[in-house]
Amino acid sequence: xxxxxxxxxxxxxxxxxxxxxxxxxxxxxxxxxxxxxxxxxxxxxxxxxxxxxxxxxxxxxxxxxxxxxxxxxxxxxxxxxxxxxxxxxxxxxxxxxxxxxxxxxxxxxxxxxxxxxxxxxxxxxxxxxxxxxxxxxxxxxx
Length: 142
Prior knowledge:
Blueprint: H1 3-7, E1 14-15, E2 18-19, E3 31-42, H2 46-50, H3 59-72, E4 77-81, E5 86-88, E6 101-114, H4 117-120, H5 126-141
């Protein structure tokens, strides 16, 4: 069964006596949240943060950048940067030994799953369990 046919199980699947009107998912509904964080970092790191191009950085700068990103966490990625650089000594890389320099404001996002009690009890509910079993049977019989 192809990936396209998995998403279109509804064309042959009936729930009770009513035909399903939209594609049914095999997984329970999931709510995703995006956390964001704005960090003020040296402007010459922009290429490395936005495009993952570190060719313009020295080995020491790469090590410093890696330590700053380790502080941020592994699941964060840069999604935006301010337009105009400005000079300051108060920035987020200061504690890693970076002196006063031109900086930009970098926006980082991290996608996290919002687990709620209703999702934990999804398969305990008889109605949802029966719908899930019907979807599996429909796939196996098609």
